[in-house]
Structures are given as structure tokens and as C-alpha cells.
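Quick question, first post here. What does this chain look like in 3D?
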Amino acid sequence: MLRVIIAGLFMFAGLFVLGVATVGIFRFSTMLNRIHIAAKCDTLGALLVLLSLIILSGWTIFSLKLLLVIIFLWLSNPVSSHLVARAEVKTNPDLNKICDFMRFDGKGNLIKLNLNNNSGSGNESGADAS
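> Answer (accepted):
Ran it through. C-alpha cells below.
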């Protein structure tokens, strides 16, 4: 009985996180924000739902398979989200108008990057090309 209650709490928490992610995907305006909310909440929501199934089934070969699915999701979801975000940055020419891209210089100061060139060199805005 206690196992069913704990599994139900994990299941409810996972479905809540997945529901918040669905709302967040529609609320955010830029593609990068949508990718971020989908990746983070998808990973956490899937973890909680699969943990609830592991708790509910007990320690069997089925729960070992679910644990392998969790490990696969935790390794592949951040990588795939990162690749999709990099593709968005590389292919969207208007992204510089929507988002600020910053990096640290050698002195610890933030510098705004100019992404108008397609070379990918990351020249600072206002910097001399020489």
C-alpha cells in the first residue's frame, strides 16, 4: 500500500512537470527558450514517471530495463537539445535581433557578440576586424 502511494506521488509529480513544460513551450517566444524548457522538464518529468513505475513494479528485470531507459534519456536528451539549439543559432539569421549572445574576455568582462557574419568567428560588436 505504501509503495502504491509513493509511486502515485512520483507519477503525479512527473506529470505535473511535463504539464508545466507543455505550457512553457507555448508561453516562451524564442526557439532557444522553448528548447531549454522542453529539455529540462522533459528529462525531469520522464525521470519521475519512470521512477514511479520502478517503485510500483518492485525490483524485477522490468525495473532494470526502466533504469536503463532513464540512463539513456539522461544521456541523450541534453545532447540532442544542445545540437538542436546549435542548429538554430547557426541557421537563424535574425536571432541576433532577438537574443543577446555574450562571452567573457580574458579579463572577466562580458562582451556582446555580433552574429551577423556567417563565418562563426564570433567577432565582438564594434571590434576592429584587423
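The chain has two domains: 2-94, 100-130.
Residues 61-91 form the longest helix (31 residues).
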